[in-house]
Structures are given as structure tokens and as C-alpha cells.
């Protein structure tokens, strides 16, 4: 007999223990809904209740839908799981030549390309999918092809683009026509704005914590800062408990929901089969009692108490949710919460499955607290340690205004630094918004990523001349820090006209000639070939250029170039303008 009579009380108690404002939970068997309920608040400030029709950002649960979009094309014979992707989109070029030639849709959807996450290369970046595909060739690999599981949102962005190319329509339109509409998922779409009247989104929150990890209150998270690219096909779905119930029915009924056969049973099975092994010991083994989990196509797959549990979770902007099912028993469940980075949704999924199958009590909430509470305390200690390790009276090497400017790295959006009053701020241009860049010690600063409650240490790098030339930023943990080079200033035609001319050093037979041709600037030293020079500095009193290890600084007084300082590794020449 199923143990669902006191499930409501269990959910409410677990919510309180994790300081979660609101939750929505459903359990399905076949086409029958065994339990459905909404608890708490969707909006704390206005005290608005959670409902079964409240919309949530589904985050990475979207990946199961993206895998389905590919499966539909496989059903039609327009796509093959194991055919190299470049045969469908030749413009898809990666940093590894072998992977470029052999990567398949199965590889992309099962996270085994060898490329790590590189999330900051795309997060909220407002560029087209086609443009981002061009940028992917610059992103470094951290493993060999098919060596191991490495979760990767970017490959799902690329899958969305692939579906667009084959279906010859926008990915979101394809999803609406082929999945959402046939399933009657009328409250779901791929933008924060609801598709109709009377639909409301849940507000997301994170727990504000004290120095030892204790809860102080809730912090409202930013909401709906999506672009077409990111989270895109990796995480842009917005849906409700009712709509996701329809989605779960497809997966426990051989690809059918009511009268709709969405996908063939064979290709549904492809998504549900293990493709990549994920060895998991330590905490996961202590929690679940096994040391292995696998990934299919858009789904995690793991042994669970004598069954096979298939599931996927997601987390974004103060929301955490999970959907999952045991296909052989036609049991499915979903748990949606509006709290960030906490395991409430996961433990409620396990509890729902256990109660639906009448399995012995596992005390999931207690188990998760026993393991996660010390981790939360350790995270708080980590912030204290970072403050304690700061070297006192270790000022930056330059005035703060010298650090300002735009820095670039292949494959990533530009990184910009500005001075706001007496403090620096930074952003990834067109992606993350301006946020605090606080001095830590020497030329190390902490960049506050407020959306993630994260302080990231970045380091400004100095060249041989003592100039701030670049920034080292740990944007991807699996590869070396990404180096952003200070972007060359763009000079006006008037400034270029100022520097063109002949400069006469105090050395017989030697002249330095500066010319401009087709938007480029060249320097020619008597008796030497002409070399293109590029600007690196533009200030009121100097316009600086570089070529190889030579520096040309044009000195200005009242917007007039008076002379050139020509500096190599071994000599410095001052050359008045003729």
C-alpha cells in the first residue's frame, strides 16, 4: 500500500528545515496522478501562494526536451545518433581536430566530448547561436574524446542550433510545434514572459547565511535574465507542475501521453539507456549507497533500491527542481522549489518514489541534512579563510584608474573594468552585469558575482614596461586560467592624422616614417622593411603603439604630436617630428 496519506506534512516539515519558501510536487503512475500539491509561497514579499500552475524556470530539466527534439528528427530519418555532426553543420569546428571530425549527437548529449563546461563563455550572452558556434573553436579541452563524463551546457546550445539547421526553423518554434503543443503544455515556453493571461512565475530565493553557515533570512534572486543563446537549449524552458506531469507521462508510457505518440519507443529507449559512466564515491556513495551513476541522452540514470531511476535536476536564479521516473513501474515524480542550491527537491523526489512503491522508510531529509549541513558550514568557513589569508598593507601597484579598460580572450565575451567613485566594477560585456571588483592584495582583486553569491579572485598581470597588460581569471576550473589581454584602443581619424609623418632621430642617416593605409598604420625605419604597428595606449599626453618588442610612444602637447620615443629592448631613441 502506498504511503501518501501523510506526505503533505512531510513536505512542509522538510521545507521548513531548508528554509524554502515554496514547493510543488506531483507523483504519477501511468496516466494516473497519485498525488499533487503546492505548498508555501511563490512570492515572499507579496505573500502570494504557490499553486500547481505556478511557472518555474526548468533550468537543466530542459536538456531532456532538447534530447527529445533530436530524437524526433532521428525518427524522421533526418538525423542519425552516431553520424559526425560536421556532416550536418560543417561550420562546427572545435579546438581538437579529431573531435571536430568525429563528434556525434550521442556524444554531445551524453557529455563526453572532452570539453569542460566553459559556462562563462556563453552565460546570458546576447549573440546568435550561429555566432557562438564560430567562437567554440577557441575553447580548450581538458580530457580526451570520450574519456570521461564532463557536464557541458555548450554542447546542448550546439544541439539546438543543429536542430534549427535540419528542421529549417527556429529551435523554440520546433519545440512548440512538435512537443509542447501536442502534449497540451500550454503554460510552458522558452522565455520568462508567460504565454497567456493568468499565469505567474515563482520568484527565486537563496538563503542568506552568517559566518558559521546559519540561516539569517532569504535573498531575492534576479529573474529571467535569459538570452536566445544562454541558457537556450541547455536550460531555457519555463513550465508548471501540471505541464511537467504531461512530460513525465510520455516517459513512463513508451513515448505516448494520452492519444499522442510523441516519439517512437525505440528512440525513447535510446535516451533512457546509459551512455557515459560517472564514477561517484565519497559523499554520493554515503548518501545513495552506490558508487555509480550514468548519463543517457538528457537524463541521469542510476540504480535505486532494486530499480532503475532516470531523472534530471536543474537550478537557476533561485530555483531548484527535479523530475524523475522508474519506467518499469510506470512511476514518475517531480519536485519544484524556489530556493537556490539546496537539495530539498532531490530528497522529495526520492521520498515520493519510495512512498509510491511502498519501500521501507529511508529518512531522506535527515540523511541529506547529516551530509549537507557540515558542507554548508565548511563553505562559510571558506569565506572566512579567504579573508584571513589576505595580506595586509599590500596595495595595488598602480592607481585604480590604470586598471580600467576592456580586455579580450578568444571564445569569451570581453571583460570590462571601470572606476565608479573610488571603487572598481567589472562585467562581462553583453553577459554578466556590472558588479563590485574589490581589492584583495597586491594586484589580486575579488570579483563579486552576486547572482551566484560568489567571490572570484582575478589577477592583473604586468608587462616588462610595468603596464597593466592582461587579467588572469579562473573561469573554468578544469583548464588553466583564461588570460584576457587589454584591448587595443580605437583611434579616431583625427588622432591618426596627428601621428602620420616623419620623425628625425639624432642619428645620421636614420629616419622613422609613419604612414596609414587601408585603416592600418605602419612604421618604417630607414633601411628596414615596413611594419604594421598597433595602438596599446591612448591618453591626453601620449599615443602608444607596439610592434613585436618595440614600442613607439607619440608624445602630445595640446593635441599636437611633438616627438616620438622609439624604444626597443636595447635602446631608446627620442625623435622630434619634422
Descriptive notes:
- By secondary structure, this protein is of the alpha+beta class.
- The chain folds into three domains: about 5-40 and about 55-380, Beta-lactamase, CATH 3.40.710; about 400-485, Lipocalin (Beta Barrel), CATH 2.40.128.50; about 495-575, Lipocalin.
- The chain has 15 helices and 31 strands.
- It has a nine-stranded antiparallel β-sheet, with helices on both faces. An eight-stranded antiparallel beta barrel has the order 16-17-18-19-20-21-22-23. Strands 24-25-26-27-28-29-30-31 form an eight-stranded antiparallel β-sheet, covered by helices on one side.
- The longest helix is centred in the middle third of the chain and has 25 residues, at about 365-390.
Quick overview:
With 578 residues, the protein is an alpha+beta fold.
Strands, helices and their partners?
Layout: H1 7-18, E1 22-29, E2 32-43, E3 48-49, E4 56-57, H2 62-75, H3 97-102, H4 105-109, H5 129-135, H6 153-167, H7 171-180, E5 205-209, E6 215-220, H8 232-235, E7 238-239, H9 241-252, E8 256-257, E9 260-261, H10 265-272, E10 276-279, H11 282-288, E11 292-295, E12 300-304, E13 307-316, E14 319-326, E15 331-337, H12 344-357, H13 364-388, H14 400-403, E16 405-408, E17 415-420, E18 423-428, E19 435-441, E20 444-449, E21 454-462, E22 468-473, E23 482-486, H15 493-499, E24 501-503, E25 512-517, E26 520-525, E27 531-538, E28 542-547, E29 550-557, E30 560-567, E31 572-576
Antiparallel strand pairs: 1-2, 1-15, 2-3, 4-7, 5-6, 8-9, 10-11, 11-12, 12-13, 13-14, 14-15, 16-17, 16-23, 17-18, 18-19, 19-20, 20-21, 21-22, 22-23, 24-25, 25-26, 26-27, 27-28, 28-29, 29-30, 30-31
Helix pairs in contact: 1-12, 2-6, 2-7
Amino acid at each position: 500500500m502506498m504511503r501518501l496519506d501523510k506526505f503533505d506534512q512531510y513536505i512542509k516539515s522538510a521545507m521548513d528545515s531548508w528554509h524554502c519558501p515554496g514547493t510543488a510536487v506531483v507523483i504519477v503512475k501511468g496516466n494516473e496522478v497519485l498525488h499533487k500539491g503546492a505548498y508555501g509561497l511563490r512570492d515572499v514579499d507579496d505573500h502570494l501562494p504557490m499553486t500547481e500552475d505556478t511557472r518555474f524556470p526548468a533550468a537543466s530539466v530542459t536538456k531532456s526536451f532538447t534530447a527529445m527534439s533530436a530524437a524526433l528528427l532521428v525518427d524522421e530519418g533526418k538525423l542519425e545518433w552516431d553520424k559526425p555532426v560536421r556532416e550536418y553543420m560543417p561550420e562546427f569546428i572545435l579546438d581538437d581536430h579529431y573531435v571536430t571530425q568525429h563528434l556525434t549527437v550521442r556524444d554531445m548529449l551524453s557529455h563526453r566530448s572532452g570539453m569542460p563546461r566553459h559556462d562563462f563563455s556563453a552565460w546570458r550572452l546576447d549573440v546568435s547561436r550561429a555566432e557562438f558556434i564560430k567562437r567554440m573553436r577557441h575553447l580548450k579541452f581538458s580530457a580526451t574524446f570520450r574519456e570521461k563524463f564532463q557536464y557541458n551546457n555548450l554542447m546542448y546550445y550546439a544541439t539546438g542550433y543543429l536542430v534549427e539547421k535540419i528542421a529549417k526553423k527556429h529551435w523554440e518554434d520546433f519545440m512548440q510545434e512538435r512537443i509542447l503543443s501536442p502534449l497540451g503544455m500550454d503554460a510552458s515556453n522558452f522565455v520568462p514572459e508567460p504565454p497567456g493571461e493568468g499565469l505567474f512565475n515563482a520568484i527565486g530565493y537563496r538563503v542568506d547565511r552568517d559566518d558559521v553557515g546559519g540561516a539569517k533570512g532569504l535573498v531575492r534572486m534576479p529573474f529571467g535574465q535569459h538570452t536566445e543563446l544562454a541558457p537556450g537549449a541547455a536550460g531555457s524552458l519555463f513550465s508548471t507542475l501540471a505541464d511537467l506531469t504531461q512530460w513525465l507521462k510520455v516517459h513512463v508510457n513508451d513515448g505516448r501521453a494520452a492519444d499522442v505518440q510523441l516519439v517512437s519507443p525505440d528512440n525513447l529507449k535510446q535516451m533512457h539507456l546509459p551512455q557515459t559512466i560517472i564514477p561517484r564515491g565519497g559523499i554520493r556513495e554515503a548518501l545513495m549507497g552506490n558508487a555509480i551513476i550514468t548519463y543517457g541522452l538528457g537524463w541521469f540514470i542510476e540504480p535505486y533500491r532494486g530499480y532503475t531511476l532516470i531523472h534530471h535536476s536543474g537550478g537557476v536564479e533561485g530555483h531548484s527542481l527535479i523530475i524523475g521516473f522508474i519506467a518499469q513501474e510506470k512511476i514518475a515524480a517531480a519536485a519544484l522549489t524556489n530556493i537556490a542550491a539546496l537539495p530539498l527537491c532531490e530528497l522529495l523526489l526520492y521520498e515520493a518514489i519510495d512512498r509510491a512503491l511502498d519501500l521501507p522508510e529511508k529518512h531522506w531529509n535527515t540523511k541529506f541534512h547529516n551530509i549537507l549541513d557540515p558542507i554548508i558550514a565548511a563553505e562559510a568557513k571558506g569565506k572566512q579563510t579567504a579573508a584571513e589569508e589576505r595580506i595586509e598593507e599590500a596595495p595595488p601597484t598602480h592607481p585604480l584608474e590604470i586598471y580600467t579598460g576592456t580586455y579580450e580572450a578568444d571564445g569569451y565575451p570581453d571583460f570590462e573594468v571601470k572606476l565608479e567613485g573610488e571603487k572598481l566594477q567589472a562585467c562581462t560585456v553583453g553577459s554578466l552585469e556590472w558588479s563590485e571588483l574589490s581589492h584583495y592584495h597586491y594586484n589580486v582583486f575579488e570579483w563579486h558575482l552576486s547572482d551566484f553569491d560568489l567571490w572570484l579572485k582575478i589577477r592583473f598581470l604586468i608587462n616588462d614596461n610595468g603596464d597593466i597588460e592582461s587579467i588572469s581569471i579562473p573561469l573554468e576550473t578544469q583548464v588553466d586560467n583564461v588570460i584576457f589581454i587589454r584591448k587595443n584602443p580605437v583611434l579616431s581619424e583625427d588622432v591618426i592624422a596627428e601621428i602620420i609623418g616623419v620623425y628625425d632621430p639624432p642619428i645620421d642617416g636614420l629616419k622613422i616614417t609613419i604612414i596609414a593605409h587601408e585603416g592600418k598604420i605602419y612604421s618604417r625605419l630607414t633601411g628596414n622593411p615596413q611594419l604594421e604597428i598597433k595602438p596599446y595606449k591612448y591618453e591626453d599626453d601620449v599615443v602608444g603603439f607596439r610592434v613585436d618588442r618595440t614600442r613607439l610612444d607619440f608624445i602630445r602637447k595640446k593635441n599636437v604630436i611633438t616627438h616620438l620615443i622609439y624604444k626597443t629592448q636595447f635602446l631608446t631613441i627620442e625623435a622630434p617630428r619634422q
